[in-house]
Amino acid sequence: MKLTDERIVRAVTNEYGAALYCHRTHKGDPLDFSRHAYLVAIYQDRAGDVVIRKATQCGVSEYLMAYAIAQNDQNRAVFWVFPTETLRNQFIADRMDRTVNNTPRYLDIASRAKDKARRGKDAADAVSLKQFGNASIAFVASNSPVSFKSFSADVAIVDEVDQCDGGNLAMLPDRLAHSEFRFTRKVGNPTIGGYGIDALYGESDQKRWHIRCEGCGERQPLDWFANVVRETAEGQYELRSAADAEDARVVCRKCQRPLDRFAVGEWVATYPGRRVSGYHVSQLFSGAVPMGDIWAAFQRGLSNATEAQRFHNSVLGEPFTAEGAKLSEALLARALGDHSQQSVGEGCFMGVDVGAQLHVCVIDGNDRVVRILIAHAFSELDNLVASFKASVVIDALPETREARHFAERHRGRVLLCQFVKSDQVRDFAVDHAAMTIKADRTQTLDESHAAILQKRVMLPRDALGVPDFMPQMCAPTRVFDQDKQVFRWVEGSAPDHYRHAFNYAWICRNAYARTGQPTVWVI
Q1: 30, 127: one domain
Q2: 19 and 41 in one domain?
Q3: Crossing angle, helix 5-14 and helix 60-73, to 10 degrees?
Q4: By CB atoms within 10 Å of each CB, which of 26, 214, 229, 437 scores lowest?
Q5: What is the Cα–Cα distance from 301 to 143, expressed in whole angstroms?
């Protein structure tokens, strides 16, 4: 489809989807929809709130740039959130600035903003604030609370939702509170089910890309297990299309004839009545990666949980949880002992997670969890220390004043836990004067997780009957952060207080085990 220059100008000013016809990539290329037909509907989607759960390298970044500039040109301020300042700066330098410089229409819009600045009006042209027309785009890092308090916007874009600071994202509605529009675009690679972008997609109308088989007429969404591979034995798979990976193809799930995975299809909503417009984008129909390479990536994941996560998240655009990467009711049940909870003990180790309530877990000298409870005041913790003659590790945040007073009352028995990066501490670092113990969060959660899996610690026989204990112990999941190339534990919005109380108790137990002296911990 060709448009005259005049129609391009009018369309881009009033309809962001028409950026299809003038946008140039950071490499100077026009957008090519011959192999990206699925993107057209996304560009044309006028819903107020759009969620895109996606694979990598599927063209969504180009869409976001075109969308943001078009919104700006319609006098709508845009608040664009990235996980970190480093990723933000990298995107602006490598993608945004180059795309603008390669696109005459964008340069024209930007030059008009500069002309107004020369006439005495404000205009932005900085790393974190850019202006197109009469409004600005603020590029912010999710880990900077200050950024979420100083910019009023009409449109919010959140890039890589799962990598962003969830606490600061909670303030996002405040940035849109005074706008009549309050549009949002949230995108990202998923990590685990029910968390981040996957949770948002789950609340949407959940559109999936359907392609029609030219052989039998079947319209179907492309699915790795229904259209590409079949399981021949437990954990063993073969290609549906060919024995040779070089000839790997997507096939029709009904008649098994080969499908053109880049063919023009249609988005079909699973829940068409829902307000939020949601899309799931997979490399099965979005990427230029050959099927043979995708098959090889899948095979690597069969014997490597990290590779399996990478395949599901980055190639299929789907969440993934490796077996053993999180606790389950079945795994907790395996760790049940034949002992009951008790009210007194000697030489025990207590962990306390601080929040609106104080979640407590006590482990005795035989590595048995002997008490699981919620305390409603720090005075109750005083009684527990006396009853169990316990050494304690307690969360240093968020209630610093009360926790410190508690530690002062039991100096030598209570340490405030501060989580730091692994390169800052080896095992534990104790400062007796400050009453603190520093440790790596991921490492300690790994260790306490392994203690349950390996049944090195036993839970009381009624543990699963304690209200909220089981779901909170199962909330965190160990995932691989592909940007930082490290593992981390995420729990999304699910409460996990008991899990951390148990972790603090296990930290306390391990620190004591280093010396055998609960009041003289020298690491």
Answers
A1: yes
A2: yes
A3: 90
A4: 214
A5: 31
The residue type found at 511 is A
CA distances from 261 to 8, 256, 285 (A): 31, 14, 5
Cβ distance 363 to 457 under 8 Å?
yes
**Are 168 and 225 in the same domain?**
no
Tens digit of pLDDT per residue, the chain (523 long)?
A: 333 344 433 444 434 555 667 888 999 998 888 778 999 899 989 999 999 999 999 999 999 999 999 898 889 999 999 999 999 999 999 999 999 999 988 888 887 766 665 554 444 445 588 888 788 999 999 988 888 887 899 999 999 999 998 889 999 999 999 999 999 999 999 998 888 999 999 999 999 999 999 999 999 999 999 999 999 998 899 999 876 777 789 999 999 999 999 999 999 999 999 999 999 999 999 977 899 999 999 999 998 888 999 999 999 999 998 888 899 999 999 999 999 999 999 999 999 999 999 999 999 999 999 999 999 999 999 999 999 999 999 999 877 899 999 999 999 899 999 998 766 666 788 888 899 999 999 999 999 999 999 999 999 999 999 999 999 999 999 988 777 778 889 887 789 999 999 999 999 999 877 545 444 333 3
Q: Are 44 and 119 found together in one domain?
A: yes
Handedness of CA 104, 108, 113, 117 (dihedral sign): positive
SS (H, E, C) 370-412: EEEEEECCHHHHHHHHHHHCCEEEEECCCCHHHHHHHHHHCCC
Residues 308 and 389 in one domain: no
Work out how many domains the chain is built from and give that number: 3
DSSP state of 29: P
Q: Which residues contact 43 (CB under 8 A, 6 or more apart)?
A: 16, 17, 19, 20, 63, 66, 67
**Cα–Cα distance, 296 to 228 (Å, whole number):** 12
Rounded distance, CA 471 to CA 187, Å?
Answer: 28
Cα–Cα distance between 218 and 213 in angstroms, integer?
5
The answer to the question of residue 28 being in a domain is yes
Residue with tokens 């988005």: 267
Q: Which domain holds residue 405?
A: 329-515
Pairing of strands 414-419, 391-395: parallel
CA atoms within 13 A on the CB side of 30: 10
Residues 506 and 368 in one domain: yes
